[in-house]
Amino acid sequence: MASVMLSGTEKLALRTLTGNGLGFTASDLQGKAFPRVSFVATRSARIPNSRTMVVPKCSVSASRPTSQPRFIQHKKEAFWFYRFLSIVYDHVINPGHWTEDMRDDALEPADLSSRKMVVVDVGGGTGFTTLGIVKHVDAKNVTILDQSPHQLAKAKQKEPLKECKIIEGDAEDLPFQTDYADRYVSAGSIEYWPDPQRGIKEAYRVLKLGGKACLIGPVYPTFWLSRFFADVWMLFPKEEEYIEWFQKAGFEDVQLKRIGPKWYRGVRRHGLIMGCSVTGVKPASGDSPLQLGPKEEDVEKPVNPFVFLMRFALGALAATWFVLVPIYMWLKDQIVPKGQPI
Question: Which residue did the predictor score with more confidence, 63 or 156?
Answer without folding.
Answer: 156
